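User: quick one, fold this
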Amino acid sequence: IAIFKSFFPSIDLFNGAGAFLQVAFITFGYILAGFAASTLVSGWASEETSGRLEVILSAPLTRAQWLVRTGLGLFLAITLFTGLLMVGIALGSLTAGGDVTTPIVGTVVLGLYALALAGIGVAFGGLVSTAWAGEVVAAIVIVTFVIDLLVPALKLPDWVHQVALTSHLGQPMVGVWDPVGIAACLVLAFGGLAIGAIGVARRDVAR
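Assistant:
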């Protein structure tokens, strides 16, 4: 308990399910959401890498339109994934007792993180190549996890931890939100979608 207190001094570990979830689940949750986003981005990218896209583009549809429509579909899949997580958190919180609403709403942060990663993957796919879009997202998830794990353990400077997007997402399971981090996730998601559309349109022109 003393170790947990040193990492999370502002959290009452005995105050309901939210505190336990913030300490024990949220890091795993970021990894789960991150690799889910990586898998979904890989599935999205496979339309081009497998050759199916050429068949789709035989209809009156540009690559930029394809990217925006399928990118929004990707975001919808992440939303559904987040909904399933919320159901699971709800069931777990009900058995633990205490405040149930706060951890359920806090699960939204995992979806926002996944949306941000998906936006990065779509931007990379549009600007560079869809062949490595999923792998790029997976690499970001791994680097983020390493930063979150090692910075407190090695007592590295705080600015190193600030590099990780997860350090700007607050402690949502106990109701502590970081508006800057939430805004950053949305900008990365929809900004990435826009950048990907512009990039894939330019790749079309280059051909």
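User: anything notable?
Assistant: The chain has a mean pLDDT of 84.
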